[in-house]
Structures are given as C-alpha cells and as structure tokens.
Design brief:
single chain
C-alpha cells in the first residue's frame, strides 16, 4: 500500500477539522481586538496635533507625531499633583486593607469561637452594598470627626469598602494551608506569631499579592468616594481631576487622551509584572471560597 493511499485513508477515517480549537482562538482574538482597540486609539490620538484629531474621515495613525498634548497636560492642569495623590491614596489603602484583612482572615480560620461562620457571612454581606448606598452616611460621619477634604478620609472609605471582599478572599486562601504545618513549628519551639509569620504568610503569598492587586486597582480607579470627600483641587485624585477636564469651556481631546495614556501605564505595568501571582491567587483562593 502506497504512502499516498495511507494518508488518504487517515484523512478519510481519522482526521477531524479542529473547529472547536479554531473557534476558541478566533473568539479569543476577536475579544482581544475588541478590548484593546480603544486603548490603541487613545494612544494614537494622544500623539496627534489638534487639527488631525478632528479630521474626516478619521485616520488611525498620526501623520505628524507630537508631544504637545502631554506638554499641555502638565502645564495647564494639576495632573502631576493628581498622579501623586492617586499613588499616595492607592498605596496607603492597599497597605491598610492588607494588614487588616490578613489579621482578620487568619483569626477567622485558626481560632475557634462561637458565631465564627455567621460573622464571616455577615462580613461578605456588607460587600453587597454599592458605594452610592453608603457614601452619604459615611460623609456625615467623616464631617463630624473633621476629616472632610483629607486623604485620610478617602483612605478610610476605600479600606472600609474593600475590606469585606479582601478578608473573605484571604480567609478562603488560608483554609487551604494545612494546620499541621503550624503545629509542627510549635512542636519545634516556635511561638504562634513566629509560626504564622514564617510558615503561613510565605505559603499565602500568591493570595496576598492577588488581594493587593484587587485593592490597588479599586483605589486607583475610584471616582465616587474621591468626588464626594475631596473638594480641594490640589488634593484631587486622577479620576476626578481628569473628569474635570471635560468641564472646561473648550474640551481638549488630545490632552484628555494623553491623560488616559498616563493613567493606564502604571496599572498596566504593575499588572504585567505580577500577573502570574494574580492567576495563582484567584485560582487557589477565590474560586474555592
């Protein structure tokens, strides 16, 4: 039997066109293009001069690349102050949420007390309240203690809002770490604090990093808390500051696109740098919860 005949028999009986794989890759590519096209358009527009932005029909690539929009953004607005404020609020919120959620989640997993499961469920229940539902009572509370128009109020608000979900996420992750590891460390002479610090926390690192990413992105993108609690222009964060660019007499789309590019870059670089930990953390902790 010749080789061509064998190939023909194989194609006739055994070969199946990989429609499923083709559809999977095709759908993924379409979804990727649908998601990334606005970002690329924003990037291209940020390098266009004003007369090219409004040209008809619109062109994708700039004819003459320029940094005028970025220069105008820094010279005609407080963008650098907004950027520093967002970094400050995001880092402080992430640190506070991590410390509180790690301590709370560890206590809910390792210590026995009456009503532990009910308390965990009530904590998760509070996450169902949307920010718009709690912002007015929170503003009244903040005004009474004299923290209106401060970054402290914003950090407290974002930490309070993110804490239920981060605590529940870390609780699910701590449940996957065997108790026997801590007991072995205690037998070897370690204290409870040393066992938790040297045994549990290193094993929970992917979950802690995933929680940090979630909190950082939430704080970085927050608009409603910053809009209500911060009124002074030098104290505004990036989402509120960029939104105010639309309130000018003449909307400068080139400057707005440049601000969008600069807002996206830090989060994008941070996400690319630790995306592996994010996948491990969500897979190991979040899904099992």
């Amino acid at each position: 039997m010749g080789r061509r005949l064998k190939c023909w028999i194989y194609l006739k009986k055994g070969f199946k066109f990989p429609w499923r794989i083709l559809g999977l890759y095709g759908g993924s590519i379409l979804l990727l293009l649908w998601s990334i096209f606005p970002l690329i358009w924003m990037l291209m527009t940020s390098f266009k001069p004003t007369e090219e932005i409004f040209i008809y029909p619109p062109e994708f690539l700039p004819r003459h690349m320029t940094l005028t929009n970025f220069h105008a953004l820094f010279s005609r607005s407080h963008f650098l102050s907004y950027f520093i404020n967002s970094m400050k609020v995001s880092i402080l919120t992430t640190a506070c949420a991590l410390v509180l959620s790690v301590l709370g989640a560890y206590g809910l997993v390792r210590f026995r007390f009456r009503g532990k499961e009910l308390l965990a469920q009530l904590v998760l229940l509070t996450y169902l309240f949307a920010p718009i539902m709690i912002i007015i009572p929170f503003y009244i509370l903040i005004r009474k203690i004299g923290l209106v128009n401060t970054h402290t109020a914003l950090v407290l608000a974002l930490t309070s809002f993110s804490l239920p979900f981060t605590l529940w996420l870390l609780r699910s992750f701590f449940q996957t770490i065997p108790l026997e590891l801590e007991e072995a460390a205690l037998v070897d002479g370690a204290t409870h604090l040393q066992a938790a610090f040297y045994i549990v926390l290193p094993l929970a690192a992917p979950g802690i990093i995933a929680t940090a990413i979630f909190t950082l992105i939430l704080a970085w993108n927050d608009y409603i808390f910053a809009r209500i609690l911060i009124t002074s222009d030098p104290l505004k964060t990036l989402p509120v500051g960029v939104q105010d660019l639309f309130n000018q007499t003449v909307v400068d789309w080139g400057m707005i696109m440049a601000s969008g590019v600069l807002i996206t870059i830090p989060v994008l670089l941070f996400f690319i740098f630790i995306q592996q930990y994010l996948i491990e953390g969500w897979g190991a902790g979040g899904i099992k919860g």
